[in-house]
Hints:
The structure holds 2 protein chains of 2 kinds.
Chain A: E1 13-17, E2 20-23, H1 24-45, H2 53-73, H3 76-98, E3 109-112, E4 115-118, H4 127-149, H5 151-156, H6 164-205, H7 211-241
Antiparallel strand pairs in A: 1-2, 3-4
Helix pairs in contact in A: 1-3, 2-3, 3-7, 4-6, 4-7, 6-7
Chain B: H1 2-7, H2 12-147
Amino acid sequence: MHEGITVVLKAEQLGSVFGFPITNSLIMAWVVMAILIGFAYFFGKSLSLVPGKLQAGIEWAFEGAITYMTEVLESEKLARKFFPLIASIFFFVGLMNVIEFFPGIGSIGLWHASEFLPLLRTPSTDLNFTLALAMIAFFTIEVTGIAMLGFFRYAGKYVNLHSPIGFVVGLIELVSNLGRLISFSFRLFGNIFAGEVMVLVAGYFLPYFLPAPLMGFEMFIGLVQALVFAMLTLFFIKLAIAAPEGAH
Amino acid sequence: MQQLLSAFGIDWHLLIAQAVNFAIVLVALTYFLYKPVLNVMQQRKEVVAKGVEDAKLAETKLATADSEAKVLVDTAETEAEGIVANAREVASAEKARLLKEAETRAAAVTRDAEAQAKEMAAQALRNSEQEVARLAILAAEKVMRAKA
Lengths: 248, 148
Protein backbone atom coordinates (compact mmCIF):
# COMPACT_ATOMS: atom_id res chain seq x y z
CA MET A 1 0.00 0.00 0.00
CA HIS A 2 1.22 3.48 -0.87
CA GLU A 3 1.81 6.20 1.65
CA GLY A 4 1.25 9.81 0.62
CA ILE A 5 -0.33 11.20 -2.46
CA THR A 6 -0.33 9.27 -5.69
CA VAL A 7 -1.13 11.34 -8.72
CA VAL A 8 -1.53 9.42 -11.91
CA LEU A 9 -1.41 11.56 -15.03
CA LYS A 10 -2.91 8.98 -17.33
CA ALA A 11 -6.03 6.91 -17.00
CA GLU A 12 -5.29 3.50 -15.54
CA GLN A 13 -5.87 0.53 -17.76
CA LEU A 14 -8.05 -2.04 -16.07
CA GLY A 15 -7.89 -4.68 -18.74
CA SER A 16 -8.35 -5.22 -22.42
CA VAL A 17 -10.94 -6.78 -24.66
CA PHE A 18 -9.50 -8.30 -27.87
CA GLY A 19 -6.44 -6.10 -27.49
CA PHE A 20 -8.60 -3.03 -27.02
CA PRO A 21 -7.57 -1.23 -23.83
CA ILE A 22 -10.33 -0.60 -21.28
CA THR A 23 -9.44 2.29 -18.99
CA ASN A 24 -11.32 3.57 -15.96
CA SER A 25 -12.09 6.83 -17.76
CA LEU A 26 -13.68 4.85 -20.59
CA ILE A 27 -15.94 3.04 -18.11
CA MET A 28 -16.83 6.35 -16.49
CA ALA A 29 -17.68 7.79 -19.91
CA TRP A 30 -20.12 4.92 -20.39
CA VAL A 31 -21.67 5.56 -16.98
CA VAL A 32 -22.14 9.25 -17.78
CA MET A 33 -23.57 8.35 -21.18
CA ALA A 34 -26.02 5.94 -19.57
CA ILE A 35 -27.21 8.60 -17.13
CA LEU A 36 -27.56 11.26 -19.84
CA ILE A 37 -29.23 9.07 -22.43
CA GLY A 38 -31.48 7.43 -19.83
CA PHE A 39 -32.60 10.82 -18.58
CA ALA A 40 -33.10 12.11 -22.13
CA TYR A 41 -35.11 9.01 -23.06
CA PHE A 42 -37.52 9.18 -20.14
CA PHE A 43 -37.73 12.95 -20.15
CA GLY A 44 -38.35 13.02 -23.90
CA LYS A 45 -41.25 10.60 -23.39
CA SER A 46 -42.88 12.69 -20.67
CA LEU A 47 -43.02 15.91 -22.68
CA SER A 48 -46.36 17.69 -22.80
CA LEU A 49 -47.73 20.93 -24.21
CA VAL A 50 -48.43 22.11 -20.68
CA PRO A 51 -44.97 21.86 -19.15
CA GLY A 52 -44.09 20.81 -15.62
CA LYS A 53 -41.39 22.60 -13.66
CA LEU A 54 -38.53 20.52 -15.03
CA GLN A 55 -39.74 20.79 -18.61
CA ALA A 56 -40.30 24.53 -18.23
CA GLY A 57 -36.76 24.91 -16.89
CA ILE A 58 -35.18 22.90 -19.68
CA GLU A 59 -37.23 24.70 -22.31
CA TRP A 60 -36.18 28.02 -20.83
CA ALA A 61 -32.52 26.95 -21.04
CA PHE A 62 -32.87 25.71 -24.64
CA GLU A 63 -34.69 28.86 -25.67
CA GLY A 64 -32.00 31.02 -24.08
CA ALA A 65 -29.19 29.00 -25.66
CA ILE A 66 -30.72 29.19 -29.13
CA THR A 67 -31.41 32.90 -28.77
CA TYR A 68 -27.80 33.48 -27.74
CA MET A 69 -26.45 31.29 -30.54
CA THR A 70 -28.65 33.13 -33.03
CA GLU A 71 -27.11 36.38 -31.87
CA VAL A 72 -23.58 35.04 -32.19
CA LEU A 73 -23.99 33.23 -35.51
CA GLU A 74 -26.40 35.88 -36.87
CA SER A 75 -28.64 33.15 -38.26
CA GLU A 76 -31.34 31.18 -36.52
CA LYS A 77 -31.01 28.33 -39.00
CA LEU A 78 -27.32 27.87 -38.19
CA ALA A 79 -28.03 28.23 -34.48
CA ARG A 80 -30.57 25.40 -34.62
CA LYS A 81 -28.16 23.31 -36.66
CA PHE A 82 -25.30 23.64 -34.18
CA PHE A 83 -27.39 23.64 -31.04
CA PRO A 84 -27.23 19.83 -30.56
CA LEU A 85 -23.43 19.84 -30.78
CA ILE A 86 -22.91 22.77 -28.42
CA ALA A 87 -25.53 21.53 -25.93
CA SER A 88 -24.16 17.98 -26.00
CA ILE A 89 -20.64 19.20 -25.26
CA PHE A 90 -21.98 21.17 -22.31
CA PHE A 91 -24.17 18.39 -20.93
CA PHE A 92 -21.62 15.59 -21.37
CA VAL A 93 -18.63 17.48 -19.99
CA GLY A 94 -20.70 19.27 -17.35
CA LEU A 95 -22.25 16.09 -15.98
CA MET A 96 -18.96 14.20 -15.83
CA ASN A 97 -17.29 17.14 -14.08
CA VAL A 98 -20.08 17.47 -11.54
CA ILE A 99 -20.27 13.80 -10.57
CA GLU A 100 -16.47 13.66 -10.40
CA PHE A 101 -16.47 14.03 -6.60
CA PHE A 102 -19.43 11.79 -5.90
CA PRO A 103 -18.67 9.02 -3.43
CA GLY A 104 -17.28 5.91 -5.03
CA ILE A 105 -15.70 7.63 -8.00
CA GLY A 106 -11.97 7.23 -7.63
CA SER A 107 -12.32 5.42 -4.33
CA ILE A 108 -13.79 2.12 -5.49
CA GLY A 109 -11.24 0.11 -7.37
CA LEU A 110 -9.18 -3.00 -7.75
CA TRP A 111 -5.86 -3.97 -6.21
CA HIS A 112 -3.65 -5.11 -8.99
CA ALA A 113 -0.14 -6.28 -8.13
CA SER A 114 -0.01 -4.09 -4.99
CA GLU A 115 -1.24 -1.16 -7.09
CA PHE A 116 -4.64 0.47 -6.54
CA LEU A 117 -6.62 0.95 -9.76
CA PRO A 118 -9.77 3.07 -9.37
CA LEU A 119 -12.71 1.71 -11.31
CA LEU A 120 -14.01 5.12 -12.31
CA ARG A 121 -12.15 8.23 -13.37
CA THR A 122 -13.77 11.31 -14.84
CA PRO A 123 -12.99 11.32 -18.59
CA SER A 124 -12.10 15.01 -18.53
CA THR A 125 -9.06 14.07 -16.41
CA ASP A 126 -7.94 11.80 -19.23
CA LEU A 127 -6.29 13.55 -22.15
CA ASN A 128 -7.68 10.90 -24.49
CA PHE A 129 -11.18 12.19 -23.91
CA THR A 130 -10.39 15.91 -24.02
CA LEU A 131 -8.27 15.47 -27.14
CA ALA A 132 -11.01 13.44 -28.82
CA LEU A 133 -13.55 16.14 -27.99
CA ALA A 134 -11.15 18.85 -29.18
CA MET A 135 -10.71 16.96 -32.46
CA ILE A 136 -14.46 16.73 -32.94
CA ALA A 137 -14.80 20.46 -32.26
CA PHE A 138 -11.83 21.19 -34.56
CA PHE A 139 -13.20 19.14 -37.47
CA THR A 140 -16.67 20.60 -37.03
CA ILE A 141 -15.22 24.10 -37.16
CA GLU A 142 -13.06 23.46 -40.24
CA VAL A 143 -15.74 21.53 -42.13
CA THR A 144 -18.29 24.25 -41.38
CA GLY A 145 -15.87 26.89 -42.65
CA ILE A 146 -15.28 24.98 -45.87
CA ALA A 147 -18.99 24.24 -46.34
CA MET A 148 -20.07 27.83 -45.77
CA LEU A 149 -17.31 29.64 -47.67
CA GLY A 150 -16.17 27.06 -50.21
CA PHE A 151 -12.78 25.35 -50.10
CA PHE A 152 -10.75 28.00 -51.88
CA ARG A 153 -12.16 30.98 -50.05
CA TYR A 154 -11.68 29.19 -46.74
CA ALA A 155 -8.14 28.16 -47.65
CA GLY A 156 -7.53 31.78 -48.67
CA LYS A 157 -7.80 32.72 -45.02
CA TYR A 158 -4.60 30.81 -44.33
CA VAL A 159 -2.68 30.93 -47.57
CA ASN A 160 -2.66 34.53 -48.63
CA LEU A 161 -0.41 35.35 -51.56
CA HIS A 162 -1.60 38.91 -52.15
CA SER A 163 0.97 40.56 -49.90
CA PRO A 164 3.89 39.51 -47.69
CA ILE A 165 2.09 40.75 -44.56
CA GLY A 166 -1.03 38.89 -45.57
CA PHE A 167 1.02 35.76 -46.06
CA VAL A 168 2.52 35.98 -42.57
CA VAL A 169 -0.87 36.75 -41.03
CA GLY A 170 -2.29 33.72 -42.83
CA LEU A 171 0.49 31.54 -41.44
CA ILE A 172 -0.14 32.82 -37.91
CA GLU A 173 -3.84 32.10 -38.38
CA LEU A 174 -3.04 28.58 -39.50
CA VAL A 175 -0.77 27.90 -36.53
CA SER A 176 -3.22 29.36 -34.02
CA ASN A 177 -5.96 27.32 -35.62
CA LEU A 178 -3.98 24.11 -35.15
CA GLY A 179 -3.05 25.29 -31.66
CA ARG A 180 -6.70 25.19 -30.73
CA LEU A 181 -6.47 21.42 -30.65
CA ILE A 182 -3.93 21.67 -27.84
CA SER A 183 -5.51 24.62 -26.03
CA PHE A 184 -8.95 23.02 -26.14
CA SER A 185 -7.82 19.67 -24.81
CA PHE A 186 -5.31 20.87 -22.21
CA ARG A 187 -7.56 23.60 -20.85
CA LEU A 188 -10.26 21.13 -19.90
CA PHE A 189 -7.84 18.41 -18.82
CA GLY A 190 -5.69 20.81 -16.78
CA ASN A 191 -8.58 22.48 -14.97
CA ILE A 192 -10.34 19.32 -13.92
CA PHE A 193 -7.19 17.31 -13.18
CA ALA A 194 -5.75 20.17 -11.11
CA GLY A 195 -9.01 20.40 -9.20
CA GLU A 196 -8.82 16.75 -8.35
CA VAL A 197 -5.22 17.05 -7.21
CA MET A 198 -6.06 20.13 -5.15
CA VAL A 199 -8.87 18.31 -3.34
CA LEU A 200 -6.48 15.42 -2.72
CA VAL A 201 -3.83 17.75 -1.28
CA ALA A 202 -6.40 19.65 0.79
CA GLY A 203 -7.32 16.34 2.40
CA TYR A 204 -3.79 16.24 3.85
CA PHE A 205 -3.85 19.83 5.10
CA LEU A 206 -7.19 19.75 6.88
CA PRO A 207 -8.84 16.37 6.53
CA TYR A 208 -12.65 16.12 6.55
CA PHE A 209 -13.24 19.90 6.60
CA LEU A 210 -11.34 21.51 3.76
CA PRO A 211 -12.07 19.10 0.90
CA ALA A 212 -15.88 19.48 1.05
CA PRO A 213 -16.13 23.21 0.17
CA LEU A 214 -13.33 22.75 -2.36
CA MET A 215 -15.29 19.97 -3.98
CA GLY A 216 -18.27 22.30 -4.30
CA PHE A 217 -16.01 24.90 -5.85
CA GLU A 218 -14.49 22.36 -8.22
CA MET A 219 -17.97 21.28 -9.33
CA PHE A 220 -18.64 24.91 -10.19
CA ILE A 221 -15.32 25.07 -12.05
CA GLY A 222 -16.34 21.89 -13.86
CA LEU A 223 -19.57 23.51 -15.07
CA VAL A 224 -17.68 26.64 -16.10
CA GLN A 225 -15.17 24.56 -18.05
CA ALA A 226 -18.01 22.71 -19.80
CA LEU A 227 -19.51 26.08 -20.71
CA VAL A 228 -16.13 27.39 -21.86
CA PHE A 229 -15.58 24.39 -24.13
CA ALA A 230 -19.06 24.75 -25.63
CA MET A 231 -18.81 28.54 -26.06
CA LEU A 232 -15.34 28.44 -27.62
CA THR A 233 -16.60 25.88 -30.12
CA LEU A 234 -19.45 28.25 -30.92
CA PHE A 235 -17.13 31.27 -31.30
CA PHE A 236 -14.66 29.38 -33.47
CA ILE A 237 -17.53 28.25 -35.71
CA LYS A 238 -18.50 31.91 -36.00
CA LEU A 239 -14.91 32.84 -36.89
CA ALA A 240 -14.72 30.04 -39.45
CA ILE A 241 -17.87 31.12 -41.30
CA ALA A 242 -16.89 34.79 -41.29
CA ALA A 243 -15.75 35.97 -44.70
CA PRO A 244 -11.96 36.36 -45.01
CA GLU A 245 -10.46 39.79 -44.49
CA GLY A 246 -10.53 42.03 -47.53
CA ALA A 247 -12.84 39.70 -49.39
CA HIS A 248 -15.70 42.11 -49.54
CA MET B 1 6.80 13.44 -28.64
CA GLN B 2 6.49 9.75 -28.06
CA GLN B 3 7.38 10.34 -24.44
CA LEU B 4 4.73 13.07 -24.14
CA LEU B 5 2.07 10.85 -25.63
CA SER B 6 2.88 7.97 -23.32
CA ALA B 7 3.06 10.28 -20.27
CA PHE B 8 -0.53 11.31 -20.88
CA GLY B 9 -1.54 7.81 -21.90
CA ILE B 10 -2.59 8.86 -25.38
CA ASP B 11 -3.73 5.82 -27.32
CA TRP B 12 -5.50 6.07 -30.66
CA HIS B 13 -7.81 3.25 -29.60
CA LEU B 14 -9.00 5.31 -26.67
CA LEU B 15 -9.18 8.49 -28.72
CA ILE B 16 -11.50 6.79 -31.18
CA ALA B 17 -13.51 5.17 -28.39
CA GLN B 18 -14.07 8.52 -26.66
CA ALA B 19 -14.94 10.23 -29.94
CA VAL B 20 -17.47 7.49 -30.64
CA ASN B 21 -18.84 7.92 -27.12
CA PHE B 22 -19.40 11.59 -27.74
CA ALA B 23 -20.95 10.89 -31.11
CA ILE B 24 -23.39 8.46 -29.46
CA VAL B 25 -24.29 11.06 -26.85
CA LEU B 26 -24.78 13.67 -29.58
CA VAL B 27 -27.05 11.45 -31.67
CA ALA B 28 -29.02 10.05 -28.72
CA LEU B 29 -29.62 13.43 -27.10
CA THR B 30 -30.59 14.91 -30.45
CA TYR B 31 -33.27 12.28 -30.98
CA PHE B 32 -34.45 11.83 -27.40
CA LEU B 33 -34.10 15.34 -26.04
CA TYR B 34 -33.41 18.26 -28.37
CA LYS B 35 -35.78 17.42 -31.20
CA PRO B 36 -38.79 16.51 -29.02
CA VAL B 37 -38.31 19.52 -26.73
CA LEU B 38 -37.86 21.94 -29.63
CA ASN B 39 -40.88 20.37 -31.35
CA VAL B 40 -43.02 20.84 -28.26
CA MET B 41 -41.87 24.45 -28.02
CA GLN B 42 -42.71 25.00 -31.69
CA GLN B 43 -46.11 23.39 -31.21
CA ARG B 44 -46.84 25.54 -28.20
CA LYS B 45 -45.79 28.62 -30.16
CA GLU B 46 -48.26 27.70 -32.88
CA VAL B 47 -51.03 27.02 -30.37
CA VAL B 48 -50.45 30.36 -28.65
CA ALA B 49 -50.30 32.20 -31.96
CA LYS B 50 -53.56 30.57 -33.00
CA GLY B 51 -55.15 31.46 -29.66
CA VAL B 52 -54.13 35.09 -30.00
CA GLU B 53 -55.39 35.20 -33.56
CA ASP B 54 -58.69 33.63 -32.52
CA ALA B 55 -59.08 36.16 -29.72
CA LYS B 56 -58.44 38.99 -32.17
CA LEU B 57 -60.97 37.54 -34.56
CA ALA B 58 -63.55 37.19 -31.80
CA GLU B 59 -62.90 40.77 -30.75
CA THR B 60 -63.45 42.15 -34.24
CA LYS B 61 -66.51 39.94 -34.57
CA LEU B 62 -67.86 41.25 -31.30
CA ALA B 63 -67.24 44.83 -32.42
CA THR B 64 -69.02 44.29 -35.74
CA ALA B 65 -71.86 42.49 -33.93
CA ASP B 66 -72.20 45.48 -31.61
CA SER B 67 -72.37 47.96 -34.46
CA GLU B 68 -74.73 45.68 -36.36
CA ALA B 69 -77.04 45.45 -33.40
CA LYS B 70 -76.94 49.22 -33.03
CA VAL B 71 -77.87 49.67 -36.69
CA LEU B 72 -80.71 47.18 -36.30
CA VAL B 73 -82.09 48.91 -33.22
CA ASP B 74 -81.80 52.30 -34.91
CA THR B 75 -83.70 51.20 -38.02
CA ALA B 76 -86.29 49.49 -35.85
CA GLU B 77 -86.76 52.69 -33.88
CA THR B 78 -87.18 54.89 -36.91
CA GLU B 79 -89.51 52.34 -38.44
CA ALA B 80 -91.61 52.21 -35.30
CA GLU B 81 -91.73 55.99 -35.21
CA GLY B 82 -92.89 56.03 -38.81
CA ILE B 83 -95.55 53.44 -38.08
CA VAL B 84 -96.87 55.38 -35.09
CA ALA B 85 -96.90 58.66 -37.02
CA ASN B 86 -98.64 57.00 -39.89
CA ALA B 87 -101.25 55.50 -37.55
CA ARG B 88 -101.80 58.85 -35.96
CA GLU B 89 -102.28 60.48 -39.31
CA VAL B 90 -104.70 57.81 -40.45
CA ALA B 91 -106.64 58.09 -37.21
CA SER B 92 -106.98 61.86 -37.43
CA ALA B 93 -108.04 61.62 -41.07
CA GLU B 94 -110.65 59.04 -40.14
CA LYS B 95 -111.86 61.22 -37.30
CA ALA B 96 -112.26 64.18 -39.60
CA ARG B 97 -114.09 62.06 -42.14
CA LEU B 98 -116.45 60.69 -39.51
CA LEU B 99 -117.18 64.17 -38.15
CA LYS B 100 -117.89 65.51 -41.59
CA GLU B 101 -120.17 62.63 -42.41
CA ALA B 102 -122.05 63.05 -39.12
CA GLU B 103 -122.39 66.76 -39.82
CA THR B 104 -123.74 66.25 -43.31
CA ARG B 105 -126.10 63.57 -42.08
CA ALA B 106 -127.36 65.81 -39.27
CA ALA B 107 -127.80 68.62 -41.75
CA ALA B 108 -129.76 66.33 -44.07
CA VAL B 109 -131.97 65.20 -41.20
CA THR B 110 -132.66 68.79 -40.19
CA ARG B 111 -133.43 69.74 -43.73
CA ASP B 112 -135.84 66.83 -44.12
CA ALA B 113 -137.54 67.66 -40.86
CA GLU B 114 -137.90 71.32 -41.87
CA ALA B 115 -139.34 70.39 -45.23
CA GLN B 116 -141.75 67.99 -43.66
CA ALA B 117 -142.85 70.58 -41.10
CA LYS B 118 -143.35 73.13 -43.87
CA GLU B 119 -145.33 70.62 -45.88
CA MET B 120 -147.42 69.79 -42.88
CA ALA B 121 -148.07 73.43 -42.17
CA ALA B 122 -149.03 74.06 -45.77
CA GLN B 123 -151.30 71.05 -45.70
CA ALA B 124 -152.91 72.24 -42.50
CA LEU B 125 -153.36 75.69 -44.01
CA ARG B 126 -154.90 74.20 -47.13
CA ASN B 127 -157.15 71.99 -45.04
CA SER B 128 -158.28 74.88 -42.89
CA GLU B 129 -158.87 77.07 -45.98
CA GLN B 130 -161.18 74.39 -47.42
CA GLU B 131 -162.95 74.06 -44.08
CA VAL B 132 -163.42 77.85 -43.84
CA ALA B 133 -164.77 77.93 -47.35
CA ARG B 134 -167.19 75.08 -46.66
CA LEU B 135 -168.29 76.71 -43.45
CA ALA B 136 -168.78 79.99 -45.26
CA ILE B 137 -170.88 78.29 -47.89
CA LEU B 138 -172.85 76.55 -45.19
CA ALA B 139 -173.40 79.79 -43.39
CA ALA B 140 -174.41 81.48 -46.58
CA GLU B 141 -176.86 78.66 -47.31
CA LYS B 142 -178.34 78.98 -43.84
CA VAL B 143 -178.71 82.71 -44.30
CA MET B 144 -180.33 82.27 -47.63
CA ARG B 145 -182.71 79.63 -46.28
CA ALA B 146 -183.72 81.82 -43.47
CA LYS B 147 -184.44 84.60 -45.91
CA ALA B 148 -186.41 82.53 -48.16
